[in-house]
Amino acid sequence: MRKEMLINVSQTEECRIAILENSVLEELYTERASQNNFAGNIYKGKIVNLEPSIQAAFVDFGVGRNGFLHISDVEPQYFRQAGYDPEEIMDGKIPGADIDDGDDDKSNGRPPRRRGGRNGMRSTRPRFKPPIQEIFRRGDEVLVQVIKEGIGSKGPTLSTYISIPGRYLVLMPALGRVGVSRKIEDEKQRRTLRQILLELNPPKGLGFIVRTAGQDRTRRELSRDMAYLLRLWKVLVKRVKNTSGPTDIYEESDMIIRTIRDIFSEDIDAILVDEKNAYERAREFLHLVMPRYVDRLKLYEGKEPLFHKYDLEKEIAKIQRRTVPLKGGGSIVIDPTEALVAIDVNSGSFRTDDSAEETAFQLNMAASKEIARQLRLRDLGGVIVNDFIDMRRESHRRKVERSLRDAMKRDRARTKILRTSPFGLIEMTRQRIRPSLKRSVYEDCPCCQGRGVVKTGESMAIEVVRILMMACQQSRASRLTVRVNDKVAAYLNNRKRREVMKIEEDNDVSVQILGSEALFPEHFECDCRDREGNLIALPFIEEA
Prior knowledge:
This protein is of the alpha+beta class. The protein folds into 4 domains: 3-33 and 256-313, Nucleotidyltransferase, domain 5, CATH 3.30.420.60; 42-251, CATH 2.40.50.140; 323-441, no CATH class; 457-529, Ribonuclease E, catalytic domain (Hypothetical Protein Ychn, Chain: A, 3-Layer(aba) Sandwich), CATH 3.40.1260. The chain contains 14 helices and 24 strands. It has helices at residues 86-90, 132-135, 187-199, 219-242, 255-263, 276-289, 306-309, 312-319, 356-378, 394-408, 437-441, 457-471, 486-494, 497-507, and strands at 3-8, 14-21, 24-32, 42-51, 56-60, 67-70, 141-148, 157-159, 164-165, 169-172, 178-180, 207-210, 247-250, 270-273, 297-299, 323-325, 331-336, 340-346, 382-387, 415-417, 425-430, 479-485, 510-516, 524-529. A 6-stranded mixed beta sheet has the order 16-17-18-19-21-20, covered by helices on one side. The radius of gyration is 30 Å and the shape is globular.
């Protein structure tokens, strides 16, 4: 299998990175220069408001929008201000101070909450938390990291659990120990990596986790990564001591460096970059952290645009379509809503043999793999409900669940998948760090306000007649001029002409209806004037 990473930065406003496996688009990352990306950045902020009812604080960290800091994301060291000893809490000496355990390389500042220890590791996340109003006061300074971008009217989500990723390791100051990513499942490899970290003698009080990219790395490579992270941490500590909030302390690398650092692995055969400066930055980074792979980086100098050459533009255009066809027939329909993402599997023309059960099973197996791929490509997060074709056999349902879980394993976002419900639904959650690709590329339609539908000409005509009847009740109304879409005007002047004439006769007013193709379908404008030509306001129009 040939894997390639294509980096398109030929236009300065946008950076796009695609991961291809045998010429099939498997992952896509897009970032716009006009969009502020704060995820992963570290700031020294100030508490501007406390909300005891939801046990959260709002933090001004200097970007114009306050961040949201929940009590569950407050590191125990801050508990001293409430009169609690963090060591006693972590040792479980305080009633209710039970602790969770776990390790992960995708924590984004959050030490995992998985119950039960692994290899005797000690947790950093106690279940006991003092009230947030006892920990902080307005005006207090706090070191925070953005773990989730603001979405819609919601501000960014913050955490005091700081994590700084390197190539093979993640530095987590609050961790206080060494750990290994859960994605490295081989116990022998886990013990070896843990032993190497312990032999490197990390400073007391600082924690390190080996990322999945650190698997099979040498002691020298891990040592070099640890030294880099320690140098960076010392610089950040100085900034924290010498500056007052709100201010930025650490900013994540640009998307090119970040993606190479987090995603590139030895099974990627080539990295193609279509812009000289970006190529030089990527080459410098590879030479610094992965010198053995520098020769895999190539500068694309072809005249045909890079994504066009690999036929990716058509594939990217398909990503935003509601319906995704499946091979052999059938399709999945993806409907993101405010609360959740609904995915429906349709059989269409898909058939196997003469068995309805086997047809449903084979289609669901194909759909499970495509669903996982589409979730990655569209970067959809939150609650996701998958409505598969009904299957009677329990073994078939379990195989579809297993297929979906296996397909989601390669996803870098955290996911949790439940078993099939009595209604045949598979519910799951996917970590949401930033707005979906659709929200980043598109905006709500001004015609339908994001509903995806507009009123018919008949519906608009009925509403216009209703408003005309109300406008005529104005004591001085003499002349009404209505401007609507061409289809609505045609309906009014033909099908509704008698009603309009009756309004004119009963109220002694003249009504003029003007239509234009340039106006969107729900456009409505009414100019009401008296006999002297003075404008009469119609306050009820907005309510209509």
